[in-house]
Amino acid sequence: MRHIINFSFVICIIIFFGCSKDEGVMSTDAHDVFAVRSNGNDMTVKVEGNTLSKIIILFVHGGPGEGSWIFNKFSAPLKEKYAIALWDQSNSGTSQGNNSKNQTVDNTLINLDKVVKALQHRYNNNFEFYLMGHSCGGGFSAGYLGADNNQSQFQGYINIDGAHNLTLVKEYQREELLKRAEIEINKNSNTEQWKEMKQFCIDHPSINTIEDFSQLSLNCGNSTSLIDSVYTYSLVNSSTFFGEYSFLSYLTNWSSLWKHEDYIKEIFWETDFTDRLPNITIPTLVVWGKFDLNLSYQMAQNYLDNVGSVDKEVVIMEHSGHYPFAHEPEPTFNAIINFVERTK
Amino acid sequence: MTSGIGSRKLRESGLYTGHQLGFGLMRTFTPGQTYTFDYDGNISTVAGGYFYGVAQFSIELGKNFSVKNIPFSSYIELSGMVQFPYNSGVLFHVMGGIGIRHEIDWIKKVKIIDKFKKQS
Question: What sign does the CA torsion over A318, A319, A325, A330 have?
Answer without folding.
Answer: negative
